[in-house]
């Protein structure tokens, strides 16, 4: 697990490049609850790019539980999902608009999802 990256993952870089190309400026690794991947202060918006496995994406083919040490993994993944929800609530309470992008959404039809993200960011202003 030491090789699992928490920053600068491929899906995160894909989203960042798209946003930058469309004129959205942002900050990275800002110390806010949950450590959002992308923070857009002018728009008062944060964006999380979540991996389906690690954050327990419901009804996703990539969010399978390993067959060995199942109890540990179920506990870990459900703990991650609970923590994500608490951080989301804290950020919304503090006035931030919270967006979440799942890794599986950045597959074949990534352009559609990326434009949806862009539209939701722009419509919140």
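^ Assign residues to that structure.
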């Amino acid at each position: 697990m030491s090789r699992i990256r928490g920053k600068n993952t491929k899906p995160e870089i894909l989203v960042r490049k798209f946003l930058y190309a469309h004129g959205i400026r942002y900050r990275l690794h800002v110390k806010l609850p949950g450590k959002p991947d992308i923070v857009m202060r002018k728009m008062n918006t944060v964006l999380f790019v979540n991996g389906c496995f690690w954050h327990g994406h419901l009804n996703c083919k990539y969010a399978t539980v390993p067959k060995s040490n199942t109890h540990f993994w179920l506990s870990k993944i459900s703990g991650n999902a609970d923590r994500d929800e608490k951080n989301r609530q804290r950020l919304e309470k503090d006035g931030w608009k919270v967006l979440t992008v799942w890794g599986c959404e950045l597959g074949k039809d990534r352009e559609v999802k990326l434009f949806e993200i862009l539209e939701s960011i722009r419509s919140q202003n």
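The CA atoms of residues 11 and 107 lie 9 Å apart.
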